[in-house]
Design a protein that fits this description.
- The complex is a heterodimer of chains A (1001) and B (91).
- Chain A is an alpha+beta fold and 1001 residues long.
- Among the domains of chain A are: 204 residues, FAD/NAD(P)-binding domain, CATH 3.50.50.60; 191 residues, Probable tRNA modification gtpase trme, domain 1 (Gyrase A, domain 2), CATH 3.30.1360.120; 95 residues, Elongation Factor Tu (Ef-tu), domain 3 (Beta Barrel).
- Chain A has 23 helices and 50 strands.
- In chain A, 48% of the residues are buried.
- Chain B has one helix and six strands.
- Chain B has a single domain, classed as Folate-binding superfamily (Folate-binding fold, 2-Layer Sandwich), CATH 3.30.2270.10.
- The interface between A and B is medium-sized, with 23 and 27 residues.
- The complex binds zinc ion.
């Protein structure tokens, strides 16, 4: 530290704890209590980055979350690196490594800086217009733009940190731990309310806690001293939960709020292991008090973006809180009284203040008089017209304003400085208020938007509501909080506040220069490099709505959401179009208020916890037997069981051959199962399925097809009549939950008169499905007393039988076309019954098969899979399943839609079979089918829905949906692929055993 | 995130519920007697208004019961919750 920038003995920075850190490869030092920004400034580093578009050198400008420039890449580890971190928000820790981003090759020599000189070519809408250029132009520029315009690097490895979520409930949520929030917390607690107080900084107290002037007094004490006592009091209050380093991310309807707490980012990397990095609070509050304060506005003048130009309030905070001088030759440029507090802080700390430039004619408030009495030169009715210094400001030029404030007069005066503290007044932080749906109103006196109407149980107080002077802040906060909580008296009622009162106000959104606007660069949005010129250009090009102007110029669209830029943009639009700002409306602020890491959003739901998955009772057996799994809905289903390094194709060929030639066994536990009971159960089934159910006998099973009211196939499955008023319905694996809700919906809302009760029993039973010519022998070995003759136990029937103490429901139903038994047992016996089947089937080479083989076997028989061969646009008629539509029934779900003009069209897509001319060629599922591929545009007739190589038939088979397919049997068609065209012939959908002989073994 | 006062369970978070669209559209008793236009009116046509809208909601991750909600679509305020079969309130 060559320059003397540190002021000793500041209470918030611990000078006994020196911390080292590395910025752009250089080792530097700061103290515990510093932010990265204050530590950099104490090392005389202002230049930290390059601007997005013009790559102009930019320096630290603020001391908070509104920082547009000091956005750094933290860490150099591929997994832990964090882009876009504001140096003003991150607390310094020992060993911190950070780098400038958005500059290439380096912050001091930046190739993109050439954009600065090309800037006439980069006007508003540049990126939109660039995209409009011929493609050949874009390709040339793309590489250059991408390389030089990036905002930080994403980590390339998985985030190893832990994140947490937690729900919280409270009577009163207070957002912002400044003086008004603290007073509100105390009033609420004294009324016995449960209070949750959030503060995004490390310490409570806001800006008043480091206030050091002698004019502001509360109860005859220095205001900061008074506040410290209140904080001690609140820390010991059992009704108040305080969460510091916690920033509100989102304010949703019904007072549901999300807040993010930083738990380890301030610790050195070694102290973080096994600790939760961040916690996301999901808060439900009965009432919300917003006390988020205000942020200072910059002023908009030519070259107002050089390193060393900072907000006046930031310069004050760096001195009074961190003990850091931002420069040794300071100048203040203001339009209001608050910057005079900065003047006093500079003076008190022995820091040189060369001059104050004030656009007002005069000010006679107490604080200004005090500054006058110190002999500091004040240029009234002057404005800055230009600044100089490439990587750090070194000179400013000022001129006198004319009467209207729209031009400058007189002679130029040059002043040298290394820090220019600017203040353009204050903007209430109404972001959360508007996020929650609140409407703003414009206050002409202070040129601010303040909270107006809200539908929620919430209140804005303090400077977030538009009170800026200490007596207003305190007295109104007390009064408003009492009204909001309906409290008569509080301990603050007799509070005595003294402070300076501002009398003269003046605001010019775009300050004039001696140069024409087209020759100047008055920046509005530092992060996106948009200037006042861009706003005017957008207006000239016909953009009127502020939302459009914002998007066209990208003003306010950076990661800071235009916290600094928005008011000036609105002001310039209003001035240019002669509109009242209040009539323009504001742009909408959206969550998150400050950026969130993905880790915080997902919390613990990572890796295997990302989504829940369901396992059948036999799952472990499948794992032990080398099954590959596929996800079906939330289920993990055995897909195929490769043996000795078999490919999937080979395994499926072997499994399906075994099932057709001897016996296969499938875990069918995932099928949806709904237990249906009640005296009207039969009538209910009649109404939900397309076919007739009235004559189904007890002990029999029936296949049913379910439609939506629009006539499209919704689900299918077999239902068994277990007793007089008792049925067990099965559904597809993926459709189970939806079918259940749909049926409940009809029962509760359309047919409440029916006596029917539905219970989902999918998880209660496990199902082993044994199929193939030898299935009967195996079942006979397990259930010795069960009569398996076709007379006693025919296809589509059911028996209840005991195996020891285990109740088994055995259904003789088949999805493969083979003789097949499904054994249903209580889930806890699932693995046992499975292993019994495997044991009994050993001599018949019983072969476990997965979902892929099941799909192949059913396709050979032309059985559809709802969701694979149908897609919500297929009626039963389209599927050539006319046989399942009852002609006798008066009504069922979807019946009326089956003869709408659209559903009776003959040229609808219909399910057909396809055979390839080359029997070894397997079609790709999803492939398009055409008649003529040379006539453009090619007429697409349909697509392949299921396709396999059948080992039994020794040829490729496929199902497809095809326009007018019913009429096209025998027709030759084409399936064009990337480098070949496959010739196919339309066939019947049933490829194997058209006579259904295998079903009886 | 709304808070919805299930008439059977009490106030719960919105994530426990699913919305079932516009309420008070009864399934025609005799669909076969409707012409295509009348059936299409039942099947496809739904209101989408700014203001009070009557909707069906289901406490899917709770008691599974369906009920009606009168919601102001301009601010998502729930004005009234009432059971299936009850008449919509005058608001
Ligand atoms: Zn409920």
């Amino acid at each position: 530290m060559s320059k003397n920038l540190r002021i000793n003995n500041k209470q918030f920075v611990d000078e006994t704890r020196k911390l080292s850190f590395i910025f752009n490869g250089k080792k530097l030092y700061g103290y515990k209590g510093d932010t990265l920004a204050s530590a950099l400034l104490s090392n005389d580093i202002h230049l930290v980055g390059r601007s997005f578009k013009y790559h102009r050198p930019r320096g630290i400008m603020t001391s908070g979350s509104e920082e547009p420039n000091a956005i750094l890449q933290i860490g150099n580890d591929d997994a832990l690196t964090d882009p876009n971190v504001r140096a003003t928000e991150i607390e310094l820790y020992d060993g911190l490594i950070c780098n400038s981003q958005n500059c290439w090759p380096s912050v001091k020599f930046d190739i993109g800086g050439i954009n600065n000189f090309l800037s006439p070519l980069l006007p508003a809408g540049f990126y939109y217009k660039t995209f409009m250029w011929p493609a050949s132009f874009w390709e040339k520029y793309e590489y250059f733009i991408r390389k030089s315009a990036g905002l930080g690097k994403s980590p390339t490895k998985q985030d190893p940190d832990m994140y947490d979520h937690r729900y919280m409930h409270c009577d009163i949520l207070i957002v912002g731990g400044g003086v008004s929030g603290l007073i509100a917390a105390k009033i609420a607690s004294d009324d016995n309310k449960k209070v949750l107080l959030l503060e995004d900084k490390e310490l409570l107290g806001g800006s008043l806690i480091y206030d050091d002037n002698d004019i502001s007094k509360i109860d005859n004490q220095k205001s900061s001293e008074w506040l410290k006592k209140l904080i001690e009091n609140i820390k010991n209050d059992k009704n108040i939960i305080i969460k510091t380093r916690t920033s509100l991310a989102a304010y949703h309807n019904y007072n549901f709020l999300l807040a993010r707490q930083n738990l380890t980012d301030h610790l050195s990397v070694n102290d973080r292991s096994n600790k939760i990095r961040q916690r996301l609070y999901k808060i439900r509050a009965k009432k919300v008090i917003i006390s988020t304060g205000a942020i200072e506005r910059p002023q908009v003048f030519h070259n107002n973006d050089r390193p060393g130009i900072m907000l006046a309030s930031a310069v004050k905070k760096y001195i009074d809180y961190y003990g850091v001088r931002c420069g040794l030759e300071n100048v203040i440029f203001t339009n209001n009284d608050s910057a005079y507090e900065t003047a006093l802080s500079l003076y008190k700390s022995g820091t040189k203040l060369n001059a104050i430039i004030d656009i007002r004619d005069n000010s006679s408030s107490e604080i200004v008089n005090k500054v006058k009495s110190l002999g500091i030169q004040i240029y009234w009715n002057h404005t800055v017209i230009n600044t100089k210094g490439y990587k750090r400001i070194n000179k400013i030029t000022i001129m006198k304003l004319n009467d209207k404030g729209n031009d400058v007069v007189g002679k130029k005066i040059e002043l040298s400085c290394d820090c220019l503290a600017i203040s353009g007044g204050w903007t209430p932080m109404v972001h959360l208020f508007t996020q929650s749906g609140g409407k703003l109103k414009f206050d002409n006196k202070d040129n601010i938007f303040v909270p107006d109407k809200t539908n929620l149980n919430q209140l804005s107080i303090g400077s977030a509501k538009g009170d800026f002077e200490l007596d207003d802040v305190l007295k109104n906060s007390i009064k408003d909080t009492k009204n909001f909580l309906q409290i008569e008296n509080s301990n603050f009622d007799k509070i005595d506040v003294k402070c300076s009162k501002e009398k003269e106000k003046k605001n010019i959104w775009l300050l004039p220069s001696d140069k024409p606007l087209s020759k100047t660069k008055p920046f509005l949005d530092y992060q996106n490099d948009s200037t006042a010129k861009d706003i005017k250009l957008a207006l000239r090009e016909g953009f009127k709505s502020i939302e459009h102007v914002k998007r066209y110029t990208t003003t306010g669209m950076g990661t800071d959401q235009g916290k600094l830029a928005n008011m000036h943009a609105l002001g310039i639009v209003a001035d240019t179009t002669n509109t009242n700002m209040g009539d323009l409306g504001t742009t909408t602020f959206r969550p998150p208020y400050t950026p969130l890491t993905f880790g915080t959003i997902v919390g613990r739901n990572v890796g295997q916890f990302f989504d829940i998955f369901r396992k059948t009772p036999m799952h472990d057996w499948h794992v032990d037997n080398n099954a590959k799994f596929e996800n079906v809905g939330q289920w993990k289903r055995a897909w195929y069981y490769p043996k000795d390094g078999e490919s999937m194709h080979d395994a499926v060929q072997r499994e399906s051959k075994a099932a057709r030639e001897s016996t296969g066994i499938l875990d069918a536990s995932t099928l949806g199962k709904i237990d249906i009971q009640g005296t009207d159960a039969n009538e209910f089934l009649n109404r939900v399925y397309t076919n007739a159910w009235s004559k189904l006998q007890i002990g029999k099973c029936r296949y049913g097809l379910m439609l939506n009211e629009d006539g499209m196939v919704y689900d299918d499955g077999v239902t068994t009549r277990l007793g007089e008023n008792h049925y067990l319905m099965t559904t597809t694996t993926g459709g189970a939950a939806n079918v259940m809700s749909k049926l409940e919906d009809y029962l509760q809302t359309e047919w409440p008169e029916l006596d029917v009760f539905l219970t989902s029993v999918t998880d209660h039973y496990a199902t082993a499905s044994v199929c193939g010519p030898n299935a009967k022998k195996i079942i006979n070995k397990i259930f010795k007393d069960l009569d398996l003759s076709d007379e006693s136990f025919p296809h589509m029937s059911f028996k209840e039988v005991k195996l020891g103490d285990i109740n088994c429901r055995v259904m003789r139903i088949s999805f493969t076309g083979e003789l097949s038994y499904e054994i249903n047992v209580e889930a806890s016996y699932g693995k046992y019954i499975w292993e019994r089947c495997i044991e009994a089937g050993k001599e018949f080479n019983i072969t476990p098969y997965g979902t892929e083989t099941m799909h192949l076997l059913r396709a050979e028989k032309g059985f559809i899979i709802v969701g694979q061969d149908t897609d919500g646009t297929m009626t039963p008629v389209d599927l050539q399943m006319d046989w399942i539509i009852s002609k006798k029934k008066y009504d069922f779900i979807g019946k009326r839609s089956l003869y709408r003009s659209d559903t009776i069209r003959e040229d609808r897509k219909q399910l057909v079979g396809l055979l390839t001319d080359n029997p070894n060629e397997i079609l790709e599922e999803g492939a398009q089918i055409v008649k003529n591929e040379n006539k453009k545009p090619v007429n697409m007739l349909g697509h392949v829905t299921s396709s396999y190589f059948s080992p039994t038939l020794k040829k490729s088979i496929a199902l497809a949906v095809l326009k007018e397919g019913k009429k096209l049997k025998g027709q030759k068609l084409l399936v064009p692929m990337i480098n070949k065209t496959i010739k196919v012939t339309v066939s019947d959908t049933v490829f194997l055993d058209k006579e259904n002989e295998r079903i009886n073994g | 995130m709304f808070l919805i006062n299930c008439p059977y369970c009490g106030e719960r978070d919105q994530s426990e519920f699913v919305s079932g669209g516009e309420a008070h559209i009864a399934r025609p008793k005799q669909p076969t007697e409707l012409n295509d236009d009348q059936w299409a009116e039942y099947l496809f046509m739904r209101k989408n208004i700014k203001g009070i809208q009557f909707e069906r909601w289901n406490h899917a991750h709770g008691c599974r019961k369906w009920f009606n909600v009168a919601r102001d679509t301009s601010n998502d305020k729930i004005e009234k919750i009432y059971k299936m079969g009850e008449q919509p309130p005058k608001l």
